[in-house]
């Protein structure tokens, strides 16, 4: 099963459906279908990967930014820089859309 790693601070937003997308760089292309969200504190949630696309941060819509759980490009950018310190605005982001599928 595909496992996608998240910081533990995203657990509740993913569980509640407030975060339904993650922006990644330099990671494998995740296949559509069932996966597991693994959190840095050891907790997990079952998810389904529902879409995959590629964009730079400057080409992301407000809707895409909100799917990621952020309200503005600046807020998302600041979070991304925390995970990817060498990220440049022109670098393509892999946008992974998903939904939580609790039993």
TrEMBL record:
One Pfam short name: ASCH
Organism, scientific name: Ancylomarina euxinus
Source organism phylogeny: Bacteria, Pseudomonadati, Bacteroidota, Bacteroidia, Marinilabiliales
Designated name of the protein: ASCH domain-containing protein
Matching SUPFAM superfamilies: PUA domain-like (SSF88697)
Source superkingdom: Bacteria
Domain (ASCH): residue spans on this chain: 4-100
Family annotation (InterPro entries): ASCH_domain, PUA-like_sf
């Amino acid at each position: 099963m595909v496992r996608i790693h998240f910081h533990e601070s995203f657990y509740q937003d993913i569980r509640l459906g407030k975060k339904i997308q993650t922006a990644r760089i330099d990671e494998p292309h995740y296949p559509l279908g069932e996966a597991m969200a693994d959190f840095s504190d050891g907790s997990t949630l079952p998810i389904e990967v529902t879409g995959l696309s590629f964009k730079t941060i400057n080409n992301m819509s407000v809707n895409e930014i909100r799917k990621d759980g952020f309200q503005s490009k600046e807020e998302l950018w600041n979070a991304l820089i925390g995970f990817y310190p060498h990220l440049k605005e022109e670098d393509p982001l892999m946008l992974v859309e998903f939904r939580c599928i609790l039993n």
